[in-house]
Amino acid sequence: MQGENEIGGFPSESDALTDRVTLGKEIRKLRKARSKTLADIAAATGRSINFISQLERGRAEAPISDLKRIALTLGVPLTWFFVSDAQPAHEINRVVRKGGRRHLGSVASGLSEELLSPSIGGKFDMFLSTVRPGASHGPVKAKNTEEEGYVVAGQLDMWIDNNHICLNPGDSFRIANEPYRWENKGDVDVVVIWVIAPPSA
Predict the structure, then answer these.
(1) Which CATH architecture has domain 2-81?
(2) How far apart are the C-alpha atoms of 155 and 151, rounded to whole Å?
(3) CA angle (196 as vertex; 166, 135 as ends), nearest 5
(4) Beta strands in 40-197 (DSSP E)
(5) What CA dihedral angle connects 141, 143, 145 and 146, to 10 degrees?
(6) Mean pLDDT, rounded, for 57-61
(7) DSSP, res 109
(8) Is residue 125 within 8 Å of residue 33, measured between CB atoms?
(9) Over the chain, what is the mean pLDDT?
(10) Domain 98-197, CATH class in plain words
């Protein structure tokens, strides 16, 4: 009942549906941004492709164990899928506060990323990437995206289409439909603001 909902704080049926739809959209946007297929997620969770499709549409519910496997497959913490209630409604999808950034990657992998965009899956995504000493990535095959970056700190060695470029603080770069790889050969973290468009290519 409406009054009992408001006093007791129990979620209503419509609230639960909204949460399912929001969660499904988050999974779908991140899956596409990570270039994963429904089959990839189904294999990771042991579920059917049809179930994952229904989950993304907000028509099915997944237990935490499934969400943990999905998060692991997409390279994000489980908390990625749950938007904080602390953010004012008028800031959602508009503002990202410093303490409210969503994290990708891990210290163990040598690359940790924070999403600077208010949400993932728009026309472009912006990240704050921290590359640990000795970490490397690639080679990444040419894909139909344009990526640009600005080096905030440290020195990053990058190879774009086999051309070696040494990037220092204040330098910026563009990768347009080209293969690339990078490495932090130094002994301090490299910090890069990285923009990818379109994110789901």
Answers:
(1) Orthogonal Bundle (1.10)
(2) 8
(3) 45
(4) 102-106, 111-115, 125-131, 136-140, 146-153, 156-160, 163-167, 172-176, 180-183, 190-197
(5) 40
(6) 90
(7) T
(8) yes
(9) 84
(10) mainly beta
Q: Residue 68 carries which DSSP code?
A: H
Q: How far apart are the first and last CA of the chain?
A: 46
Assess whether the region 2-81 and the region 98-197 belong to the same CATH fold: no
In one-letter notation, the amino acid at residue 86 is: A
**ω into residue 133 within 30 of 0, thus cis?**
no
Give the separation between CA 147 and CA 160, rounded to whole angstroms: 11
The neighbour count for residue 64, using CB atoms within 10 Å, is 9
Domain boundaries, the chain: 2-81, 98-197
Entry pTM: 0.70
Which tokens hold the place of 127? 């990240």
Given a contact cutoff of 8 angstroms between Cβ atoms, the answer to whether 31 and 121 are in contact is: no
